[in-house]
């Protein structure tokens, strides 16, 4: 890939709204991505491999549990810093951000929020340092947008629970040390449990041939009579609201992350348009290209404002799930459209791995689908404003 010359657009001086700590955290993540992710990510994506060598670096910039208290190994940062870290990582690659999101919001968050003190002490410091990697099993072959229908189940056997079923499309599954899994008990109530690699009957086959998120490992979780010790059940919350609470946190991070991908595409297209000469002048001098670039920076600026406000609401614990849905949906759609436009600005060069745009575009096709599809988030807004659910 060509040298990383990224310069972030800040058209409305949003940096003025950030604290010194936010800027320090953001700039450290930005520099780390330039130094450690940009030089290797194209190769990792082409080879369809998660670059494990960056795990320590992700831990060092606070990407694993940014808002988990320091006593459990987390970075103890606020929601704005969490968002900014996700933005910077996704500026590098959505697959790398997916790994960090899963570890933080879908594995550490439920253990912190719904787990026992013993579970927190046992798992959180190792997850924060990257010694343990985790994954989150909610989606099943027959239950994607409708996870409440899940058939994965646990049966109480006295000393332990017996777990059976299968999850698919699970990020980090092929190499995860632990999985936070959602399963129904005999009463049909959804419970969260921690499954450890090495438990008999538990396998994690990798999903191959993806055109998207190639630098993130995806797989299945198969449970064939797995004995789960009772102390591995998350005791403090159950029902569908428990996994949905984790998704709120992850979707919030995605709203920021998508801005990162969009900023990278815009910045690349702007630089290229100023340098590329056709018909004796830079293509940036043609109205058609200016329209694309001007609309890109307008959409990025709107998304930045929306997301900054959402961060402020999250810090006050006032953000609703529906507000998070709106930002996730808007920002990912915005980023995907910008990636498509930016790729055209680069002409043929846009389809090569010399530039990050095509990789972002392909990645965003997953991001617009996972953690609630584009359609489902619209239905959440529809339900919120009308009071009438249109899911069924
Ligand atoms: C790369 C990748 C990584 C992933 N990582 C994870 C992970 O770590 N953990 C995890 O649990 N899951 C993960 N997922 C799964 C993801 O969350 C699901 O793919 C997603 O929820 C959609 O489910 P589905 O693919 O089964 O689509 P479906 O639910 O079958 O939807 C298919 C289409 O129908 C539409 N649709 C569905 N219901 C309605 C409705 N009521 N009204 C109108 N339209 C509707 C959808 O919008 C979509 O367009 C991942 C997916 C991908 C691609």
TrEMBL record:
Assigned keywords, A-Z: FAD, Flavoprotein, Oxidoreductase, Transit peptide
Tell me which residues make up the Acyl-CoA oxidase/dehydrogenase middle domain.
135-226
GO MF annotations for this entry? fatty-acyl-CoA binding; flavin adenine dinucleotide binding; glutaryl-CoA dehydrogenase activity
Entries under Pfam families matching the protein: Acyl-CoA_dh_1, Acyl-CoA_dh_M, Acyl-CoA_dh_N
Q: Where is the Acyl-CoA dehydrogenase/oxidase C-terminal domain?
A: 238-380
The superkingdom of the source organism is Bacteria
Q: Which biological processes are named by the entry's GO terms? A: fatty acid beta-oxidation using acyl-CoA dehydrogenase; fatty-acyl-CoA biosynthetic process
Ranges where the Acyl-CoA dehydrogenase/oxidase N-terminal domain occurs = 19-131
Q: Which cofactor does it need?
A: FAD
* Family, similarity comment: Belongs to the acyl-CoA dehydrogenase family.
- Official protein name in the record: Glutaryl-CoA dehydrogenase
Q: Which organism is it from?
A: Lutibacter oricola
The taxonomic lineage of its organism, from the top, reads: Bacteria, Pseudomonadati, Bacteroidota, Flavobacteriia, Flavobacteriales
């Amino acid at each position: 890939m060509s040298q990383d010359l990224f310069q972030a657009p800040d058209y409305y001086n949003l940096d003025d709204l950030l604290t010194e700590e936010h800027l320090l955290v953001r700039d450290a993540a930005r520099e780390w991505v330039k130094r450690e992710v940009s030089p290797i990510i194209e190769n990792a994506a082409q080879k369809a491999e998660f670059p494990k060598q960056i795990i320590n670096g992700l831990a060092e910039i606070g990407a694993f549990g940014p808002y988990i208290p320091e006593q459990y190994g987390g970075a103890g940062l606020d929601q704005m810093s969490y968002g900014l870290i996700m933005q910077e990582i996704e500026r590098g690659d959505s697959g790398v951000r997916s790994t960090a999101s899963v570890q933080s919001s879908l594995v550490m968050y439920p253990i912190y929020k719904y787990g026992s003190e013993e579970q927190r002490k046992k798992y959180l410091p190792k997850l924060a340092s990257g010694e343990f990697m985790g994954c989150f099993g909610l989606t099943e072959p027959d239950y994607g947008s409708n996870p409440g229908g899940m058939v994965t189940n646990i049966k109480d056997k006295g000393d332990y629970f017996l777990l059976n079923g299968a999850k698919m499309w699970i990020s980090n599954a092929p190499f995860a040390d632990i999985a936070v899994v959602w399963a129904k008990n005999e009463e049909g109530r959804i419970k969260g449990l921690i499954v450890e690699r090495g438990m008999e009957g538990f396998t994690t086959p990798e999903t191959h041939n993806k055109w998207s998120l190639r630098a993130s490992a995806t797989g299945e979780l198969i449970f064939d009579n797995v004995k789960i010790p009772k102390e591995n059940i998350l005791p403090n919350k159950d029902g569908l609201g428990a996994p949905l609470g984790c998704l709120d946190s992850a979707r919030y991070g995605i709203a920021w992350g998508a801005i990162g991908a969009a900023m990278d595409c815009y910045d690349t297209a702007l630089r290229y348009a100023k340098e590329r000469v056709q018909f004796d002048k830079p293509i940036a001098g043609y109205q058609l290209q200016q329209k694309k670039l001007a609309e890109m920076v307008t959409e990025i600026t709107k998304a930045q404002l929306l997301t900054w406000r959402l961060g402020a609401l999250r810090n006050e614990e006032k953000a609703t799930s529906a507000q998070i849905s709106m930002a996730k949906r808007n920002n990912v759609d915005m980023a995907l459209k910008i990636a498509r436009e930016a790729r055209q600005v680069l002409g043929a060069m846009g389809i090569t791995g010399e530039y990050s745009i095509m990789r972002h575009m392909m990645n965003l096709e997953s991001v617009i689908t996972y953690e609630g599809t584009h359609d489902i988030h619209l239905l959440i807004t529809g339900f919120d404003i009308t009071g009438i659910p249109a899911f069924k």
